[in-house]
Amino acid sequence: MATRNIVLTNHQSEVVDRLVESGRYQNASEVLRTGLRMVEEAESAYLSKMNELREAISHGERDVESGKTRQFTGDEFANYLADRAEHIVKKKTDA
């Protein structure tokens, strides 16, 4: 394994010490490796979500280009959203 020197704030150092003292982790390296795994998972989830959002944007742009759009006034849009929300809630309570 590669060795690295890192600088922690006092608070971060105290957190690592507490976790090791609790017995949940054997040493500081184990705590930091666990933290890095969590960062990797969060980054992976973030990238997946960003890709989903990009695809949704592309889908919306294709719909606009092909004329699959509707125009709403502000009130009509508010009513549309309220109706959709009511439909979703009803669907969940009926399930």
UniProtKB/TrEMBL annotation:
<dbReference type="InterPro" id="IPR022789">
    <property type="entry name" value="ParD"/>
</dbReference>
<dbReference type="InterPro" id="IPR010985">
    <property type="entry name" value="Ribbon_hlx_hlx"/>
</dbReference>
<comment type="similarity">
    <text>Belongs to the ParD antitoxin family.</text>
</comment>
<dbReference type="InterPro" id="IPR038296">
    <property type="entry name" value="ParD_sf"/>
</dbReference>
<protein>
    <recommendedName>
        <fullName>Antitoxin ParD</fullName>
    </recommendedName>
</protein>
<keyword id="KW-1277">Toxin-antitoxin system</keyword>
<dbReference type="Pfam" id="PF03693">
    <property type="entry name" value="ParD_antitoxin"/>
</dbReference>
<dbReference type="GO" id="GO:0006355">
    <property type="term" value="P:regulation of DNA-templated transcription"/>
</dbReference>
<comment type="function">
    <text>Antitoxin component of a type II toxin-antitoxin (TA) system. Neutralizes the effect of toxin ParE.</text>
</comment>
